[in-house]
Amino acid sequence: MSSPSARPNRGPAAGPGNRRALIDAARRIYAETGLSAPFTSVARAAGVGQGSLYRHFPDRTSLEVAIFQETLAAFRADIADERIGLDALFTAVAGEPVLSTVFVQMIRDSKDAEVVEIADGYQEALSLLLTRDIARGRVRADVDVDDVIHAASMLAGELTAVPLEDRPAAASRVRRLIDAALAAR
Predict the structure, then answer these.
(1) Is 122 exposed, middle or buried (0-12, 13-18, 19+ CB in 10 A)?
(2) Is 9 or 184 the better-scoring residue by pLDDT?
């Protein structure tokens, strides 16, 4: 007889829900503390066992890849509207600065094939936004994707260094500097 608090084992049927819970928990934890959070804390926050964590994500990189594949897919969907420019990127970074810092660090440092694919997709999306903003006269023609990545990284880095309640004001200040630096002359 099981104890009253024990959850019934749903077997393979629980797989998709557990995977979703793990990704959501990791996104929350990494957004608060970065990638240094203990891997086991993700399982705990998702309400699943470590076996389930390792079954879905055998290592930290595979979990990060899953998070950032979803992030990139959502970003691509958001920028499908032709009216969207680089402002969408900087708004997204300001909304999740810790996760954005982790993302940029991961795509810069990893040689994992899936991470390289995400990095290529990210650069392709940024190139589209940059091309739109250059064509509209919002951004100088000599600005390239690496410049945009550096600007996003600076924004995220600055916001992770200030208390949560000060982030909106800090984001506004940094955004003004970035806008001025990239602006068409």
Answers:
(1) buried
(2) 184
